[in-house]
Design goal:
This protein is α+β, with helices and mostly antiparallel strands. The protein is built from ten helices and four strands, in the order ααααββααααββαα. The chain has a four-stranded antiparallel beta sheet, with no helix packed on it.
Length: 479
């Protein structure tokens, strides 16, 4: 049987509208994101040339437990990555961003509700309008329907741009969580090395105190024998009291550093178990920085800044889409009947389809201002992204210079300490032999004590510089 011309025309019209809507639905208002071109140096300033800075190999690619070999430090870092409140907050922010993405993305799909109801009514025969006795007093009727609740056809990509922004926010929060890992690993390692440095200083102070007490005992005996003067005795006492005063000060710093580490690992203040002493801490044989361009992909703060830029760029599309008409669809399809047994018969079908088009005519400049605000926010995000990259380059360069120069200082201080130890020994030998004065021996002792403490601080600074370099290169988030 040949189809009526009107039916063929209607089908062609429906198909044409479907094609047009499909094409339009592929349009996205606003600019597509393109990564800004940020000039990067060929190598990091501060590379000494002995490390392969011009290759892709980088210290930042290593996992934190491959850099820090102390077993007790590793245990502290593992505990911190689980119990630290900042980590827990960052994880919660990621969950919140993921939920926000789900809510925003849901707007792209129709909301369909199913409703049904069954009503039973009993009529009285004694009412104002009595009914014949042959009519049943009980009546049951009902309805069942599927409702389309105000579905917006995303012709201009407003909802897709909003989803793009929410997805970028999720990725930014994930990168921020990684940045928390990086900071927490470096802070814990630096505090641990501070603690080991203080332990070494305390050991030096106690050893020096014991040596000075023994010297004071000998000088006291010589003074009683009339060989040493009272001035010699008072100078020796001065050194003893000076070393004695240093010990409680170092102990104060040790306890406060232990409290700082306890906070990092999410525990109450208390003692911290040590592993290897400061002098036995392993360091990588080389500290390659890698290519500056690879830093853009490794550092979480740079990647988070880029995701913020992507989100700001997508919001421009959301704002510009407000210039165009908005198409929403509502309707329902179902069955309704005054006899429940006939509810799903052909004659009980009901439906309604309501397309609605709205076009802004006058908004007092609100839409234009929203677009300008979104564009300004995008420029702010761009400036922050570029600033983050430049800051990262500077931090790596500073850390490279710090690590290399502190290493050089430490090597010279080791030579100085060895020289002062020999000088102190010879000075006391000459004093006891009556060849030299006590003043030279005491001066040598003071210089040795100061140099030993300075060497310990420098050895600690060398390890802390390694920590800062590892952090600057974007290491520490790899689990």
């Amino acid at each position: 049987m040949k189809e009526p011309v009107g039916a063929v025309y209607d089908r062609a019209l429906y198909f044409f509208c479907f094609v047009v809507l499909s094409i339009l639905s592929g349009c996205n208002a606003g600019p597509n994101y393109r990564r800004p071109v940020v000039p990067a140096p060929a190598v990091f300033r501060g590379s000494d040339g002995s490390t392969p800075a011009e290759t892709d190999s980088s210290l930042g690619d290593l996992k934190w437990f491959e850099v820090f070999k102390d077993e007790q430090l590793q245990e502290l870092i593992r505990t911190a990555l689980v119990q630290n409140p900042d980590v827990q907050e960052a994880a919660a922010r990621v969950d919140a961003a993921r939920a926000t993405l789900g809510i925003t993305r849901a707007d792209q799909f129709p909301n369909i509700d199913a409703t049904t109801d069954v009503t039973t009514v009993r009529l009285s025969n004694q009412g104002a309008f009595p009914f014949p006795a042959t009519v049943r007093p009980d009546r049951t009727f009902g309805s069942a329907a599927l409702s389309l609740l105000s579905f917006e056809v995303d012709l201009w990509g407003r909802l897709r741009r909003a989803t793009e922004a929410a997805r970028a926010d999720l990725l930014a929060s994930e990168q921020s969580r990684r940045a928390v890992f990086t900071t927490l690993v470096s802070d814990t390692a630096a505090a641990y090395f501070d603690l080991l440095g203080l332990d070494a200083q305390l050991e030096i102070a106690r050893r020096t105190l014991a040596t000075r007490q023994e010297s004071l005992r000998l000088i006291t005996v010589r003074n009683q024998g009339g060989i040493a003067t009272d001035l010699d005795l008072r100078q020796a006492e001065q050194l003893v009291y000076g070393a004695s005063a240093t010990i409680p000060e170092i102990q104060r710093l040790i306890e406060q550093t232990e409290n700082r580490i306890s906070l990092l690992v999410g525990a109450n203040p208390g003692p911290i178990t040590r592993g290897r002493p400061l002098a036995q801490q392993e360091q990588p044989p080389s500290v390659p920085a890698g290519l500056p361009s690879s830093l853009l992909e490794r550092r979480p703060d740079i990647r988070a800044a880029e995701q913020n830029l992507i989100a700001a760029n997508a919001i421009i599309g959301v704002a510009r889409a407000a210039y165009f008409p908005s198409v929403t669809l509502t309707g329902f399809f179902g069955f309704t009947s005054n006899e429940l047994s006939n509810l799903f018969s052909r004659n009980t079908r009901v439906w309604e389809f309501v397309p609605q088009v709205s076009q802004p005519i006058f908004a007092g400049g609100r839409i234009k201002s929203n677009v300008r605000l979104a564009e300004a926010d995008q420029q702010i995000a761009l400036a922050q992204y570029e600033q983050t990259i430049q800051t990262a380059f500077r931090e790596v360069s500073d850390a490279l210079v710090e690590h290399r120069r502190v290493k050089e200082v430490r090597a010279q201080l080791e030579l100085l300490v060895n020289t002062l130890r020999d000088r102190s020994r010879l000075a006391y030998v000459r004093y006891q032999g009556g060849v030299d004065t006590l003043l030279n021996a005491l001066d040598a002792d003071r210089d040795l004590f100061t140099a030993e403490l300075t060497l310990t601080l420098t050895s600690r600074d060398e390890l802390v510089a390694l920590v800062q370099l590892y952090k600057a290169l974007g290491g520490g988030w790899q689990q």
